[in-house]
Amino acid sequence: QPTDIVSAKVGDFKKRRKMSKSTQTFCELAAILLLVASSCYGFMLPTARTKVQTALYILKSQNVTVLHSNEDDEFTQLSASAAASDNVASTAGALVPTTNVVLESSNSNSHNSKRRGFDLMWCSGEYCKESIRERVVGEDNKLVFDGPATGQVCFMWNDEDQCLVDKEGAAVVEAAAVIGAATVSVLFLVKQNDEELLQTAANAIRELTDYGVNVFLEPDMAAMIEYKYGVRNDNVKLFEPRTSPGFGGNHVPIDDKWMAEFSQYDAFSDDEELWCPVDLICTLGGDGLLMHANVMFQGAVPPILCVAGGSLGFLTPFSRDEMVEAIRVSLGMVGGSGEMPEHLCADRDPVAIKPYDVLRQNDHYFNGGDHNSSEGSYSGDAVPKFSFGLGNRICLSMRMRLECKVINREGVVRARFNVLNEVTVDRGSSPYLAALECFCDNVHLTTVQADGVIFATPTGSTAYSMAAGGSVVHPAVPAILVTPICPHVLSFRSMIFPDSVVLRCYVPDDARADASVAFDGRYRRVLHRGDSVQIQMSQHPVPTINRVDHSADWLGSLKRNFNFNTRARQRPL
Asked: Exposed e or buried b for every residue in 408-431, given b needs 16+ CB within 10 A?
């Protein structure tokens, strides 16, 4: 009821005897409401028309331009008489200086005054930068998006003059043997104590080295492969453990190969960034191997191809049978559609991976059984937009990580980790509820009185967070999940924050006991009173290669592993 709101504000105007901020706000609001009033002019009662006149009088006295959309000039005459009307002046209390009322039609050409423009930017507490996807268009300051916040990421190799040794050793480029940049390499991570997987890995290593690929293995794995399966080749190299500078903690055991040497560096030096000697990582096992790769590479991570060999394999879309071909396609040695990339030798016979329409009929990814079975079919609706190895384009999931710091009362960083799934702050071995204060961008979020709280990535949304009642989030969504663990209140629910925020969890001085923190279930340490955990988006994601694309892989895993929303279909009437 626009006229009722106008009447109430006019009464407030008379009562206050001055133009307050609330009345100024009303002037702006009434300018919009009068658009409705003008379109309903023919249906107004006389009292309602008087109210509209009063509103026009107040607005025009404050130099507010009113646009109307009425085609006839009845409303124009009504407003034109507002300034000179004694009735209107008395209704308004004669408190506003009389000015000429100017009413402009939104359809007229008289409204040609140039409007001020403005710019958009992204700002934090420390700096501002140009906005990435939001922009202002035209003289009317229209706010639009350039596109979605995320999308399907693909990569393709842009090597020049690269030609590799084929399986027979016939085609060789002179520079390929001496220039390290012209060779390709893969780091093999294999699940331990599994004879079947070790045999599969040994066979794959033989085949890849025959293709001229440098295969890196951890020292223990290299010794086992050579001793048990007789794999000896100059292209098999050792991947020596090396700690990640700036990551780890003062509580990590000194015999830890990756996190023992903790130092409080804020960033990697140029030499450290160039350390990684491999083009690709291949994991043969379960999801735990992907977590192990996350620990090994706390900085930049090469693309990871995950091959199923574990019990669940939510993040492992590839089967063992296609492992070697998938590695070759991912390294750019052969096109996934059967076409050789332009930078390879022209006289080589193309070795093509199976086309998508064949794979969808006989493929681990689409069947509803275990990972080792080749039987089954996919009963989905439509063929996804992308298929693996389409030409030399490979689809990726850029899996967000969280950079977590443990900071003591004095502001000293005691530990720092990049986690792929979640960081958990809980009560540990204490019999009391965890008492925690949580902040978002230094604004108090909530007081946690529960067994604990989980800060998870979209990748981790299907792990501990899901078991605790959190939402399931697509891996491409840039978000941080906050999920309580058994809260002692009915109103504490899981929340999702944008990846731009900085979250902090603090143990207050009046807490009954210390708390505990774990990073992807590892490197657990005690949080004393006054300690806090700071969580924010990591600069370095974990890129995993998609079997189809990021949506098809994720939804397929939900249906295959968790029987997502599975029930008998309702019969038709």
From this structure: eeeeebbbbbbbbbbbbbbbbeee
